[in-house]
Amino acid sequence: MSLNYIILRNLKKNIKNYYLYVFALIFSVALYFSFVTLQFDPAMDEVAGSVKGGAAIGTSSILLVAIVAIFLLYANTIFIKRRSREIGLFQLIGLTKGKIFRLLSAENLILYFGSMALGIGAGFAVSRLILMILFKILQVEEMAKLRFSTDALVRTVVVFAAIYVLIMLMNYTFIKGQSILSLFKVNSTAQERIKKMSVWEIILGLLGLGFVGAGYYTSTQLFSGKFTAMNELMIAMVLILGLVIVGTYLFYKGSVSFVFNAVRKSKKGYLSINEVLSLSSIMFRMKSNALLLTIITTVSALAIGLLSLSYISYYSAEATAKESSPNDFGYAELEAKEKFVQALDAKGIRYKEIKIQPVKMEVDAAQIMDTAIFKDPEDQLLSTSVISERDVEGMDLKPGETRIIGYSSALKNFVSLKETGELGFKTTEGVTKLQLTGVSDESVLPYYYSGGAGIFVVDDTVFQEFLQLIDPALQKSEKLAAYYGIDLADRSQIQEANQIYNDNEPRSPSFSQYQYELNQRNNMGLIMFIVGFLGLTFLITSGCILYFKQMDEGEEEKAGYTILRKLGFTQGDLLRGIQFKQLFNFGIPLVVGLCHSYFAVKSGWFFFGTEMLTPMIIVMLLYTVLYSIFGFLSVLYYKRVIRESL
Asked: 505 in helix, strand or coil?
């Protein structure tokens, strides 16, 4: 029997088990090649404003290589162990370890580089589609062209050839380090079996739940004011990360077994066939996969969290732009404003002008702030802008009243203020006491004027008194000027007007709501695009790894299914139990990852946008649907195993 015949026979026999591995390899190569093609595409240098799109894609491709390399090396470990008995038989019939290594290398060469060639072709075919998606996200009105990059081809071949060399080194080390006897025992020792839960395992299980719960609780208090100093905030973040990661590991190591063991004991050992195939199997296997599941869960949570935050920022771009620049355009210098409106007049663009004259004042806000958090009197003193009620449409205040506007969602979560209470406005003749009547997020001045403390609105008569009694030194030090807002009569002319704004080379402080929104969408859209594709790569690779583990378990449990079939259980009975098992196998890491990402996003989403739930739910639903595909595929695989068991 020739070596070539053995190679071809093994390829034909194993390809049905490796189809998902081949798919993941083709997908990984295609995504990497298309990414690198984008990096060398001249059109990428024009996107994302000052951020070079090609450089951003190039940096992300390094992370992509790391994810793919780890996946391929891990998958190869699973497959080489599955073939340990076959390798042992080859040695028994007289093949040397060197010949066996050459046989496996040739087999992998055909499979690996054949998949790589298909992946490069697929990557080239979809590169234009990916560029179109990116342009759509960034709202770039440019035609996406299909370009083949030889630089991208060379880099892809070099990177994946290097990964192939690492795989061959791993196979060589495995074959050289195993005796014939040990090769026949690899599969039998691959999984750790648990006979009975010890007290130590119960303690680990409870600690896992406690650590995760403590991490979640601490994350909800992160920006509540309990951690005021920057070093305290950093320590709290590191503590949260440590608690959640260690807690997740202990959760898989002991908590799952602890909970399922409690369920089993509550039934006094009388388990249905569904429970035998699901709960018992997971109790006995999840502990040995604790480290792998912890890594998958943590990285999944990271991917979902980053994608959710970037989508929140992208989704909230319009609302955030209105908060930062309430009018279409705004200026703090009269000369710059006049130059801009003259250009608008020349183009026949109609507009409405708004002028607001704020004054800078120090406000004693001790009565409306949490003094337990802000203990220092200087922290209770707000330096912000004060305007007249005439500058706010629909505002009607009495002489002894004041109201805070422009109180953004980030400010609400970072510095919580009461909606009523007494405030002290400092003037040259003392302190004027006014009663706070409410707080709102309505914005009439750019963030530049509020300094992050909101805008105080007072009765016009009180405001006129303040103009006579304000501290000149404070006004001079703050260099606070009048605000000139400009709203277009026809919003369809906003792009033309924004081009005029940019042509005038605006100096700070000047404001363009459209330009701010455009920059926000460009920057966060590019980040969302990169994180989304990296997350999709990890989703595919981690889903494949869990699927490969289920393939291993299915082969090990095949004899048990044969016994159950002979006892009278139908294929449908066993399949229902398998469905419950896969629901837990894929569902537990998914649910834990979603919970991790939810609390991570919830702790600081307000720094990224104005809406949390809608963007985050969309991301989570999409991730769940894609992740569930692998659970469905594993059920189909088990269906075949059950059918062949009798």
From this structure: coil
- Residue 104's nearest CA partner among 179, 182, 174 is 174
DSSP 151-205: HHHHHHHHHHHHHHHHHHHHHHHHHHH--HHHHTTTGGGSS---SS--HHHHHHH
Are the CB atoms for 605 and 309 separated by under 8 Å? yes
Do you know the residue count of the chain?
646
Instruction: Convert the pLDDT of each residue in 59-90 to its tens digit.
Output: 777 888 888 888 888 878 877 777 777 777 77
- Among candidate residues 550, 567, 577, the one with its CA nearest the CA of residue 646: 567
Instruction: Decide: 569 and 274 in contact? Cβ < 8 Å.
Output: no
Backbone angles phi, psi at 355, to 5 degrees: -125, 130
Q: Do residues 145 and 43 make contact, with C-beta atoms less than 8 angstroms apart? A: yes
| Single-letter residue type at 521 | R
Torsion sign across C-alpha atoms 517, 523, 529, 531: negative
What are the structure tokens assigned to 27, written together? 């997908």
Q: In the numeric block, which tokens belong to residue 126? A: 């979809």
Q: If 0-12 CB within 10 Å is exposed, 13-18 middle and 19+ buried, where does residue 331 land?
A: buried
Question: For residue 265, what are the contacts with CB-CB under 8 A and spacing of at least 6?
Answer: none
Asked if the bond preceding 509 is cis, omega within 30° of 0, the reply is yes
Spatial CB neighbours of 150, under 8 Å, sequence gap ≥ 6 = none
Residue 240, judged by CB atoms within 10 A of its CB (0-12, 13-18, 19+), counts as buried
In contact, 244 and 211? CB cutoff 8 Å:
yes
Q: Give the pair of three-digit tokens for residue 483.
A: 């605000």
Residues 51-86 as b/e (b if ≥16 CB within 10 A, e otherwise) read eebbebbbebbeebbebbbebbebbbebbbbbbbee
pLDDT, one tens digit per residue, over 243-254 is 999 999 988 887
Please, what's the b/e burial string for 355-387 (b: 16 or more CB within 10 A of its CB; e: otherwise)?
A: ebebbbbbbbbbbbbeeeebeeeeebebebbbb
**Alpha carbons 409 and 414: distance in angstroms, whole number:** 9
DSSP state of 229: S
Using only C-alpha atoms, the chain has a radius of gyration, in whole angstroms, of 32
Ramachandran bin of 570, using left for φ above 0, alpha for ψ from -120 to 50, beta for the remaining angles = beta
Structure tokens at 425: 């406005």
- At residue 69's C-alpha, the angle toward residues 64 and 70, to 5°, is 105
269-305 tens-digit pLDDT: 666 666 666 666 676 667 777 888 888 888 888 889 8
CA 536 to chain centre: 11
